[in-house]
Amino acid sequence: MKQVLIEKYGTPWEVARCAEVPDVGAPAAGEVVFDVLAFPINPADMGFCKGTYRLKPPLPATPGAECVGRVTAVGASVKHVKAGDLVINLQRENWTQRRKVKGDDAIPLPAGIDLRQAAMVRINPPTAQLMLSDFVDLKGGDWVIQNVANSAVGRLLIVLAHQRGLRTVNVVRRPELADELKQLGADLVVVDGDDLSARVKQETGDAPIRLGIEAIGGAATGRLVDCVANDGTVVHYGSMSGIDPVVGRSNFTYRGVKLTGFMLGRFLARRNAEKIRAIYADLAEQVMTGKLYAPVDTVYPIENISEALAHADKGGRNGKILVSPNGAI
């Protein structure tokens, strides 16, 4: 079978190659085997190839934070999925034609779900959902502020917040994004800058903002912290700048603002298998009904992984780059 390998860290499209490897074989009693139908190329995957991601396994290694697959075989003790079911996988190393995983790591999806959308369900939708639910007890009408609002997570957060009756302030770098984000349900779209706090206060009528969602780092974190109310919480879930957050200490000592972090695996680990499946069942249902949607630019075969990675690194794309290892999409 075909599988993507990296044998050294470096420029992703130069170090990743499509290789022939042995088949995964039959499942043990508590395992599931599935054919990988599609996987997206995420920023974390690019960092994995470069060697800048937090995980650096021994080489050669296979990237791939998420995928969608179709079950081909299950072990005798696995009861929640069967052959023919669609699944996502909670583990990594998914850039391959076939996977064998522990039963609890295979999460069922409904039949008929769009495979392109299903390939992107595992990470970004629950990230947006859990950041809205696990830090601050928000009620309808409450305000949330986020930067990187045009990202995949940012767009999903707008939709999910709007469904709950929450109002969002969405910080962007380009003003032309405003109309597009407002069509998703954004209440306010503001361009980042040194006077961000003053403009947000004016636009919201000085309403208290108790939750901030932040993914840039550096001074951008500080600007977002300045926007939240006393005793508010800012959740840092990424660092597009590559710089640690820079925040004035008076926000902590005098205003009681809390700066904390989010990593999906850590928050899913607080839940049992049944609750995790329930989270994904709800998100999959929203995908099925069209409430959650992420645009796709191009789909590549696994043999063209280098071309796919180079495309994923370019600006001006109209959505995610996907790879279809078995020609399913």
Q: Any overview of this molecule?
A:
This protein has 2 domains: about 150 residues, Medium-chain alcohol dehydrogenases, catalytic domain (Quinone Oxidoreductase, Chain A, domain 1, Alpha-Beta Complex); about 140 residues, Rossmann fold (3-Layer(aba) Sandwich). It is built from 12 helices and 15 strands. The strands form 3 sheets. Strands 3, 4, 5, 6, 7, 14 and 15 form a 7-stranded mixed sheet that branches. The protein has a 6-stranded parallel sheet with strand order 10-9-8-11-12-13, sandwiched between helices. Strand 8, helix 5 and strand 9 form a beta-alpha-beta unit.
Give a quick set of tags describing it.
329 residues, alpha/beta, Quinone Oxidoreductase, Chain A, domain 1, Rossmann fold, 7-stranded mixed sheet, 6-stranded parallel sheet, 12 helices, 24% strand
